[in-house]
Amino acid sequence: MTDIQAAFSDPQFVARYTEGPRRFVPGYEAMQSMAAILLAERVPDDARVLVLGAGGGLELKAFAQAHPAWSFDGVDPSAAMLALAGRTLGELAPRARFHEGYIDDAPEGPFDGATCLLTLHFVDVEERRRIASEVRRRLKPRAPFVVAHLSAPHGEAERPLWLSRYSAFLAASGVEPDQAAAARDAVSNHLQILAPAQDEAILREAGFSDPTLFYTGFAFRGWVAYA
């Protein structure tokens, strides 16, 4: 477990978590809105949606507010983050069922759609392949799967440039320069950042069709693909 992953069980980190994504992820709220739109294109009005990395509850709340008849199964390895998700949802919490663990701990479904936002950069290539395959197995035919995470080109020039742009975004968002630099170093040294072509290939190898880029925020990218 990396120091970043361990933080999700730290009470002080968890208490501050909901403030972070809006500052640390370019276009975070717009990305959530786009994810909901992409799901809604294919799912029924009363959709059952699988949400991997549901701790904190921010995307659950955004989806639940936008679509009052959707229900959710949220999976996360951190009990503390799942508890925070329940608090974030508030009166919407009865529409979500929480499962502590990983993809193997998710219900079998079948689900009308699934998301995995800001999560896959914590795991290596082989685990990503396994997760993608297990998600697809739990989806109904042609159901949408929306993913977004750190993804940047490889190369001696390209990767440092994208990470520098990300650091500059953090500073522009009010993060202290030393914290912005530390965040860049943590991302570079401790997370599993693949090239966009690799991310698309993993979706295809898992059996998803038509992976389409819908979001780019400096070093972050998001795709929708279909079971």
TrEMBL record:
Origin superkingdom: Bacteria
Molecular function in Gene Ontology: methyltransferase activity
GO biological process: methylation
InterPro entries in alphabetical order: Methyltransf_25 (IPR041698), SAM-dependent_MTases_sf (IPR029063)
Record-annotated Methyltransferase domain positions: 49-141
Entry keywords, A to Z: Methyltransferase, Transferase
A Pfam family of this chain: Methyltransf_25
Protein name, UniProt field: Class I SAM-dependent methyltransferase
Species per Swiss-Prot/TrEMBL record: Bradyrhizobium diversitatis
